[in-house]
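Our preliminary data section would be incomplete without showing what the modeling component actually yields. Below, a chain of 220 amino acids is followed by its predicted structure, encoded as tokens that our downstream tools consume directly.
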Amino acid sequence: MNLLDAIEVATGPTPRASVIWMHGLGADGHDFEPIVGQLVDARERAVRFIFPHAPMRPVTINAGYTMRAWYDIAALGAHVREDLEGLRDSRLQIEALINRELERGVAPEHIALAGFSQGGALALYTGTRFAHRLAGIVGLSCYLPAADRLPQEHSKATLATPIFMAHGSEDPLVLAEYGEQSRRALERSGYSVAWHLYPIAHTVSPEEIVEIASWLRRVL
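Predicted structure:
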């Protein structure tokens, strides 16, 4: 499998920890690159941030327009048929990036997955199914895809992986209700979820970035 094109930013020489961060629907790997300096203090430790670009594909919910997307979305809400094939394909691509970090000498417990919106959904989907415990999973303004399959498909090793979820209470695109439902589904399967709600729309706030930085400092 060819590795996804990605932007890499290391906060120092010889990183021994990595964060693989997935962008939202229609964005690209540059989306969260500017906040690296706010997430990690380079004086403390060297961390490699990897921002992959999703493949181009038509997206049903956006009138079939072709854009960067981790999987197709027909609609949001309950009882919507999900693009399981697209999810699995993207999961394998992210796992390939994780495996490259393992080959670089980074232990799985020092690798975190993160993402915003659709990228956060993929982080939750992939991180709960990986063969080993990871440092953590960050899901921002997102939901857990294929939540009904989690009890059968999750990897028991990942039950020890801490999860940070954050959502905007005023989000008109991915309702906070979807995030809360996903949190409950994860907790029912045995995951520990740190849940944060902010008075914002479908975006990330400065306060949220501070909380993520503090959480990453602990788990990495």
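The chain has one domain: 6-219. The radius of gyration is 16 Å. Preliminary results of this kind motivate Aim 1 of the renewal.
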